[in-house]
Amino acid sequence: MLFNSLNFMLFYPIVLLVYYILPAKVRYVWLLAASYYFYMGWNPKYALLIALSTLITYLSGLWIEKRSHNHRMQKVILVSNLAANLGILFFFKYFDFALENINMVRSRLGAGLIDRSFDVVLPVGISFYTFQALSYTMDVYKGTIRAERNVLKYALFVSFFPQLVAGPIERSESLLHQIKGLATMKGFDYGKMVDGVILILWGLFQKMVIADRAAILVDTVYDSYWLYGSVELILASILFAVQIYCDFGSYSIIAVGTAKILGIELMENFNTPYFAQSIKGFWRRWHISLSSWFRDYVYIPLGGGYGRSVIKCRNLMITFLLSGLWHGASWNYVIWGGIHGLYQIVGNLTIPYRRNIKERFAVKGNSISYKMGKAAVTFVLVDFAWIFFRADSLSDAKGIVEGIFTRWNPWKLFDQSVYHLGLDVREIHILTAAVVLLFLVDLIRYGKDQMIHCFLQEQCIWFRWGMMFVLFFSILIFGAYGPAFDVKQFIYFQF
Q1: Residues of the chain with pLDDT under 50
Q2: Which has the closest alpha carbon to 431: 442, 418, 443?
Q3: Residue 195 burial (CB count, 10 A)
Q4: pTM higher than 0.85, yes or no?
Q5: Do residues 435 and 213 make contact, with C-beta atoms less than 8 angstroms apart?
């Protein structure tokens, strides 16, 4: 069930209506039932996996807390819990990838190939809810939270439908705490409803007007990259950066909006990432819930930034390689993660040299031009890495990079060739206007440190409701619906 589908437009109002009719003390039961129904919309069998992960982590949390006097036993329980959940994740997400690489090695060694007689289907959102459940047991182990006794409330924490299949990946001290407080929560809040509607409309605008429209041009070029030169490849790569930001960011914004109307606050997952002035700054603004998860549960346990320089570099590279692998069972994603790890390592190692250059040439670090230059360089580096993320294979990524640097065709900017890449003149103009609006909203977010709903709530009622109507009718009129209302799945569902 997609946020941008008719099914969800029917499902969510019913959930909302019943939720506020029911007594507050049983609302969590209704949300749990709605969450499992939402998830089973893809495949009812998937519910068994999320239920199994929930049960394992729930019992692990109780046993870890019960064995507080025996640290060794706590560690055994934690490791067993990690092995069980990561084993499930490995089987459904990485089994084919591992078998493919084993067979490649065996083939080069002249050994026979390992055959299999079954197909493994990737359950939607398994990486997200697995990491969310694992963070709970690790927090119980560290003693930062108490183990939850009510299995239904814990099950809702793992399966809460707004953020279930594509995040944000919530922490137990935030989401679980709010679920436990639903019984004492006040009733319907008109202000939160307006905020939620604004966020939902802005999310749908990003997804249907920008991301799905940009995807047409990106797919046209990347699917036949050998036919195009540098202009088309660079344009498609820039638009993919916009596409993935609007696609993934829109899901998180809609999740925050739908949860807010229910009285639950989810974390912000994106904070103007393309305004970042360094790769480190980019990862503080991009997919915040995942990057903070890897920081807290991988990077810091490895030793973080302490110790010798080589140890710091090792910890960074391991973290980013694992982050890349989390995104998908393909060497493309591993390389993408490795590139970002390399960016961070080079950035750390060159700090004194860059500082000396700034002092020698009297560079004004606080000037707008300097900050814009740093943001531009960061975007170029990030966009280069996106090529490996988007390409279908490493050989395709290599071919695209070669095409950018070897097939120069600047005249394509002036002969209207860009209007024959899947989008005509009208569609290009719509996309351009929408991206300009996106830039302005992000500029306000960056400058005033306000999300769009907070900014609009400060404006007069005519402007606020006027913007809501503009977004609503823009989605209706300019949304990319496909030839038969074939709504496009969100990119991160595959992770």
Answers
A1: 484-485
A2: 418
A3: 21
A4: yes
A5: no
What pLDDT, in 10s, does the model give residues 195-204? 999 999 999 9
- In b/e form, how buried is each residue of 393-428, taking b as 16+ CB within 10 angstroms? eeebbeebbebbeeeeeeebeeeeebeebbbeeebb
What does the alpha-carbon distance between residue 47 and residue 428 come to, in Å, rounded to a whole number? 41
Q: What is the pLDDT of residue 394?
A: 92
327 noted as active-site residue: yes
Assign 305 to helix, strand or coil.
coil
Q: How far apart are CA 109 and CA 321, in angstroms?
A: 27
Residue 328 Cα distances to 185, 322, 332, 494, angstroms: 39, 10, 8, 8
- The predicted pLDDT at position 488 comes to 58
CA-based torsion, 320, 273, 433, 401: positive or negative: negative
C-alpha–C-alpha distance, residues 427 and 404, integer Å: 25
Q: Decide: helix, strand or coil at residue 126.
A: helix
Q: Is the dihedral of CA 46, 48, 53, 57 positive or negative?
A: positive
Select from 128, 133, 169 the least CA-distant residue to 288. Answer: 169
Annotated active-site residue in 327, 340, 429, 453: 327
The pLDDT value recorded for residue 191 is 87
DSSP 483: T
Question: Which stretches of 370-458 are assigned E, i.e. beta strand?
Answer: none
